Sequence to fold (165 residues):
Amino acid sequence: MADIPFDFAPLTPDDLIAIGRLDARAFGPGRFAKSAYRLREGVEPDWNLSFVARIGTLVVGANRMTPILCGGEPALLLGPLTVEPAFRSRGLGEALVMKSLDAARTAGHGLVLLVGDAPYYARVGFRAVPQGQLIMPGPVDPERLLCCELRPEALAAAKGKVMRV
Fold:
C-alpha cells in the first residue's frame, strides 16, 4: 500500500452516495437480499467507527459498523467492506477493518460480528461463531458467521437472536 497515497477518514453522510455506487459495482443488486443487509437497513452506521479510503477525492474503499443486539447484548456488525476492484489485493480492505476495530476497541465495544470469508477475516482477528450460539435473521451459512472479541469473553455473553437496535 505504500506506493498509493490512500487517505482514511471517518464515514460521513456526504459519503453515502459514492459508497452506494461502489457497493453496487462490487456486490450487484443481490446485496439487498442478504441477512446482514437487512440488519443494517434503516439503521445509521456508527459514524465514529466507520471509515472511507480515498485517493484524492475518489472513494476507493469503505466499511461500516452498525450497532446490533446479540441476544440482548450490544454488539457491532461490520460491513459491507467494499474496495474498488482496481485497488483490491493491496491491503486496503484489511486497513479499513483494522481502523474500525481499533476505534471500536477504544470506544469500549466488546464484540463485532460479520458474515464473510473466514480465511480473509481471520487475518484481522475474526473466528467462527459456535454454531447455534447466535441466530441471524434469514438464511446465513453458519460457517460464514464470524466474530471478533474486542473484550475477553464478550462472545460468551451473546446468545440468541441477532437483531437490529
The chain is about 25% helix and 30% strand. The chain has a mean pLDDT of 89. The radius of gyration is 15 Å. The domain at 7-164 is CATH 3.40.630.30 (Aminopeptidase).
